[in-house]
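testing teh design pipeline on a random one, pls ignore if ur not involved
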């Protein structure tokens, strides 16, 4: 199954990020990392067995196994002026609920 793990920060310009990796339960072998999650990614949801969603900032991105990168799936900028920290879809996938953390005031 897939799981996430933190990457090491390379330097101040490349902070640590989450990466998606694959663990083969049958062979009990860890394969190499599949891909990095978008910067700031927080929450993951499988929409189907072939589509994984993650939130980063005020956007939701999708990924299909075998693809080399994440694709923009839903831009929530007009409804969320901060960061989507959690989200969920109804069982028929017709509606989305999300938690928007406001931007910190400086």
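output:
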């Amino acid at each position: 199954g897939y799981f996430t793990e933190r990457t090491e920060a390379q330097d101040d310009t490349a902070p640590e990020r989450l990466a998606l990796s694959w663990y083969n339960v049958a062979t009990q072998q860890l394969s190499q990392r599949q891909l990095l999650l978008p910067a700031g990614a927080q929450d993951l949801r499988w929409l189907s067995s072939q589509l994984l969603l993650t939130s980063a900032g005020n956007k939701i991105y999708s990924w299909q196994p075998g693809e080399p990168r994440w694709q923009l799936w839903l831009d929530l900028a007009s409804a969320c002026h901060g960061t989507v920290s959690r989200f969920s879809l109804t069982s028929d996938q017709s509606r989305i609920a999300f938690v928007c953390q406001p931007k910190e005031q400086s």
